[in-house]
Specification:
Number of domains of chain A: 1
Shape of chain B: globular
CATH class of chain A: Mainly Alpha
Oligomer: heterodimer
Mean pLDDT of chain B: 82
Strand order of the largest sheet of chain A: 1-3-2
Number of strands of chain A: 3
CATH topology of chain A: Arc Repressor Mutant, subunit A
Largest sheet of chain B: 12 strands, mixed
Shape of chain A: elongated
Structural class of chain B: alpha+beta
Largest sheet of chain A: 3 strands, antiparallel
Strand content of chain A: 5-15%
Radius of gyration of chain B: 36 Å
Number of domains of chain B: 5
Low-confidence stretches of chain B: 73-78
CATH architecture of chain A: Orthogonal Bundle
Number of helices of chain B: 25
Largest interface: A-B, 23 and 27 residues
CATH superfamily of chain A: Winged helix-like DNA-binding domain superfamily/Winged helix DNA-binding domain
Number of strands of chain B: 23
Helix content of chain A: 55-70%
Structural class of chain A: alpha+beta
Chain lengths: 117, 875
């Protein structure tokens, strides 16, 4: 249990979280382009998350390298070249693992926060 | 996963441009969409744009991060990769480094050599539909290549149906004058169909047309792309402009495209304007394009037929035959033997490298066997472990591969730097995709093969742990020993074969160096002068020019003798036929061969070249008078061919083509190996320039000095400039340099073969050392017991070394047989040396003996000096 937590601390926290948000959004919404993805994250967080929208692109390329998402060239309604990102099977599996880790971590932390002397 | 990231990062190097473009598109789309959102919220266009930028964040830093993530630039991930690799290295010690370096060496050599070989002999030549192009030539009974006679070419072109088209050209050089500046350029006087044959359309204007291919036809010129860029700034308005070549005015009618690289190194095309009836000369080079469905054989048969018909016709007295060769064979055939040999040598080195890596991996795997056994016992699947081991070997081979690619690239550049001048200029050796794919392919296949074999082997052995430790140890040891034995034995055999072949080549090179060229190369210098064509009508003036110039040069301090000849030393060929007045054979009714090398000379040419005069006298003032007897000096072979044992001096010969051209032989000169040290000297005749001045305007001056030849260059060129500043001197070379150039190719492949032989030997040393060290380690207990029981250290050392020597001995026997077999195959490269020449074999054997002795002695000694108790306890 502790292992998962320590691992989370070791990888970059904002990136790690962002990865989770991206994977989850793609799971729920199906293929999205970068802009729609950023919008989706902002909307779901009720704009409480301050996000430089551009910062999702480095995260997207890294997730592609890991094989968790794939990007395909497409054309937007406004006839612009865009890339559509979608979840791979490995990505779906990874998402579930990360969700588990996350929930475990949250549970542990809340146990500490709720603990009484 | 980490392998996957490594791979995708490797690949990203190649897709960089595309990824960057995609990212740009994405950012643009994103910003545009954000802007629209803000507009919809009621912001002004300007505010909306600013808000969009703000929401997106700073673009450039983001791009930078993006790049870092997808490439190797990220320090953090680099450190991670490094940690992984370091851990692997630490685990198996220097073995991993050795494996990587072994792969790198093997791959560097093989990729560099392969890409040269590929360009020369595998890939299509850089011409359109190059496969259907053939080289046109004629041969005489004794001379395999004499070039084309114009009349014969015209007859072929007229009648041949097996050819789609054919063209001929004469190589030429021009003094191009622009303003007051004169430059020597290379040109080709071509027939109008050359661009058709090559399927080249002029970039500007037109090519040569048939009306220009007539005697005294319009003087037009088609500029090569390089010359056009260099001298005319690539301007389109050169068309129609006059240019001055050798003092004559030509009109520029076209510009060739960049890919028109044939004939070799020609800067300019001008129309061939000889009168086909004038004299008989073989001076043209030709190229033809076969009609669809025709072959070299069918074309040869047709031309033979046409030539036979010509020969039967009246007035035809020369017996020559059409000689067609594949274009590649003609231009590169001489290199095939050497290049194939080097490819073979480097392939063997790669093979040894793979065998060596396999040894090292086997040893490494054997050391990890306890760990593997534990993992198998704990339930890891065998497949999983094999996959992991294979993965590791692929990674080390990939590492070695990338290292090797860099080293291979450097090797290739080095090889290109030393390219022999005999290689056609249209061959460009570049790093290309095939080079890359080949390198990676070799690497991955080698890594996979080696890794898989050693992984399967060690998991099989480790899996038997249930049988009990002793049993496993025994059987797996025997297994290992057998495969290691085979591997080092193979390495020794291959290395010995390469060593022996390199030795044979060295021996052959030494014999070639011992061949007498027929002249003295030391202290002599040559350069060429070409007089303007406009002086054509006055041959006497030209002869006077050269005589005065040579007089002036002979007054330069340090000059001992100076002369000039119409051909540069060891270059070119200009064949004629002579008819003797009364010689060995009566020529009447017999066909004649244009196989005598004819040169015209002026000044003390024989003295300057150091050619011995065996009989008679050199040309002198007696021959200068306008009404003097026509004279000729012939070489030894000429004398023997035409006069047998009789003394030739005082006899008369004439040109076969001109019945009134009788001349008296006044001297016999020594033979000069004009066509290279490895070919016999041709029949040769020398005539004094003054008696034939009409025919020659390009002469090569040869000066012999008392000291260093190159020191003469400056004063001599000054003397030429003082005489006439408009005439450029070119092709300046010392005779030593010229002679060295003859053996350049042979030296190149000999040295390369030796380098690879050395590499093979080094790898073999590493293999023997690694395997012996491993075996010693495995037998520590046994050695300890033997020592404890009183066996001497010497005996133990000899037992270990003896085993390695026995393996090396077996390998060497196989190696000698392989080497001799290769020696028989490459007979042509050995200059008459038999493949069983003892010295190279002996030297190779001794070298192998010494290195194996050292490589196995070191671990043997190390083991025998440890305390027995410690050895026994170590296991």
């Amino acid at each position: 249990m502790l292992k998962g937590n320590r691992k989370g601390a070791k990888t970059e926290v904002p990136y790690g979280t962002l990865d989770l948000l991206i994977l989850r959004s793609l799971e729920l919404m199906g293929p999205l382009n970068g802009y729609a993805l950023a919008r989706r994250i902002e909307q779901t967080s009720d704009n409480l998350l301050s996000l430089n929208q551009g910062s999702i692109y480095p995260a997207l390329i890294r997730l592609q390298q890991k094989g968790w998402i794939r990007g395909e060239a497409a054309v937007s309604e406004t006839n612009r070249k865009v890339k559509l990102y979608s979840l791979t099977r490995a990505g779906a599996k990874q998402l579930h693992e990360e969700v588990d880790n996350w929930e475990r971590a949250v549970a542990i932390v809340s146990r500490f926060l709720e603990a009484e002397p | 996963m980490s392998l996957r990231i490594l791979l995708s990062r490797l690949l990203s190097v190649f897709t960089k441009a595309q990824t960057e473009a995609e990212l740009r598109d994405e950012i643009a789309f994103h910003l545009e969409s954000l802007e629209k959102d803000f507009l919809r919220q009621g912001l002004s266009p300007q505010e909306a744009r600013r808000a969009a930028r703000r929401a997106f964040g700073r673009i450039e830093p983001m791009k930078e991060t993006h790049r870092e993530v997808r490439s190797f630039r990220s320090l953090e991930s680099l450190a991670q990769d490094g940690r992984l690799a370091a851990r692997a290295v630490r685990r198996s010690g220097w073995q991993s480094v050795l494996i990587v370096v072994t792969f790198a060496l093997g791959i560097a050599g093989s990729t560099a050599v392969f890409s040269v070989y590929d360009r020369m002999f595998i890939r299509a030549l850089p011409f359109e539909d190059a496969a259907s192009l053939v080289h046109l030539d004629e041969r005489a009974e004794e001379v395999p290549s004499i070039r084309l006679a114009y009349a014969n070419f015209l007859a072929w072109r007229e009648a041949a149906r097996t050819f789609e088209s054919m063209a001929a050209w004469a190589e030429t050089g021009y003094n191009l004058s622009v303003h007051n500046d004169s430059e020597r350029i290379r040109g080709a006087r071509v027939t109008h169909d050359l661009d058709d044959v090559l399927r080249i359309a002029p970039l500007l204007g037109r090519g040569i047309v048939p009306e220009e291919n007539v005697l005294n036809g319009p003087k037009s010129a088609v500029l090569g792309h390089g010359l056009w860029q260099r001298r005319f700034g690539g301007r389109a308005d050169v068309l129609g402009k006059p240019i001055v070549l050798d003092g004559e005015t030509f009109t520029v009618v076209g510009v060739l495209p960049e890919r028109a690289v044939f004939p070799d190194k020609a800067d300019i095309w001008t129309p061939l304007q000889e009168n086909p009836q004038y004299g008989v000369g073989w001076f043209l080079l030709g190229v033809g394009r076969l009609a669809p469905g025709e072959t070299l054989q069918s074309a040869q048969a047709e031309l033979d037929h046409i030539q036979a018909r010509l020969a039967a016709s009246e007035g035809h007295q020369f017996s020559t035959f059409p000689a067609l060769t594949d274009l590649r064979e003609h231009y590169l055939g001489d290199f095939r033997g050497g290049a194939t040999l080097i490819l073979l040598a480097v392939g063997v080195v790669l093979l040894i490298a793979c065998g060596n890596a396999a040894c090292l991996m086997l040893v490494a795997a054997a050391r990890r066997r306890p760990e593997l056994a534990t993992r198998l016992a704990l339930g890891a699947s065998r497949g999983r472990i094999i996959r992991q081991l294979t993965c590791e070997s692929v990674i080390s081979s990939l590492l070695g591969g990338s290292l090797g690619m860099v080293a291979g690239w450097a090797t290739l550049r080095g090889m290109v730097m030393f390219r022999p001048g005999e290689l056609p200029g249209w061959l460009q050796f570049d790093l290309d995709v095939r080079f890359l794919l080949f390198a990676l392919g070799v690497t991955v296949v080698a890594g996979l093969g080696v890794g898989l074999v050693s992984a399967i082997r060690s998991t099989r052995a480790a899996g038997m742990s249930t049988l009990g430790r002793a049993a496993v140890k025994h059987s797996s040891d025997r297994h290992d020993r057998r495969s290691l034995d085979v591997l080092v034995l193979g390495q020794a055999a291959l290395a010995l074969a390469v060593l022996m072949v390199a030795g044979l080549l060295f021996r052959a090179l030494a014999s070639v160096h011992k061949v007498e060229p027929g002249f003295e190369a030391e202290h002599a210098l040559a350069f060429t002068l070409s007089l303007p064509r406009s002086d054509d009508r006055d041959g006497n003036r030209r002869a006077t020019f050269f005589r005065t110039l040579l007089d002036e040069i002979s007054n330069v301090p340090g000059v001992e003798a100076v002369g000039a000849a119409s051909l540069p030393p060891l270059e070119g060929f200009s064949g004629t036929t002579f008819v003797p007045e009364a010689g060995r054979a009566d020529p009447a009714g017999e066909m004649l061969e244009p196989s005598v090398l004819l040169q015209s000379t002026v000044g003390a040419y024989f003295g300057a070249m150091g050619i011995t005069l065996l009989d008679g006298r050199p040309f002198d003032d007696r021959d200068q008078a306008p009404n003097a007897d026509r004279v000729v000096i012939v070489n030894e072979r000429f004398a023997r061919h035409y006069f047998g044992d009789q003394r030739p001096v005082g006899r008369r010969v004439r040109f076969a083509s001109r019945p009134d051209s009788w001349m008296t032989i006044v001297g016999v000169a020594g033979d000069v190996r004009h066509q290279g040290l490895e070919r016999d000297a041709p029949l040769a005749a020398y005539i004094p320039l003054v008696q034939h001045a009409d025919a020659y305007r390009t002469m090569t001056v040869v000066a012999r000095g008392t000291g260093d030849a190159i020191g003469l260059a400056t004063p001599l060129l000054q003397a030429v400039r003082a005489r006439d500043a408009r005439i450029p001197a070119y092709g300046l070379v010392t005779l030593e340099e010229r002679l060295a150039r003859l053996t350049l190719v042979r030296r190149a492949y000999t040295w390369m073969a030796s380098a690879f032989a050395l590499l093979a030997l080094l790898l073999t040393v590493a293999g023997f050392h690694g395997v012996t060290a491993y075996r010693v380690r495995q037998r520590w207990r046994e050695i300890g017991i033997r020592l404890a029981l009183g066996e001497s250290r010497k005996a133990i050392q000899w037992r270990i070394v003896g085993r390695a020597m026995a393996l090396a001995g077996c390998g060497s026997v196989i190696g000698v047989i392989m080497g001799a077999y290769v020696g028989v195959l490459m007979e042509g490269l050995l200059f008459g040396l038999p493949a069983w020449t003892p010295w190279p074999i002996l030297i190779a054997l001794v070298l192998m003996f010494i290195v194996v002795l050292v490589a196995s002695w070191v671990p043997a000694v190390r083991a025998s000096w440890v305390e027995p108790r410690e050895l026994i306890g170590r296991e």
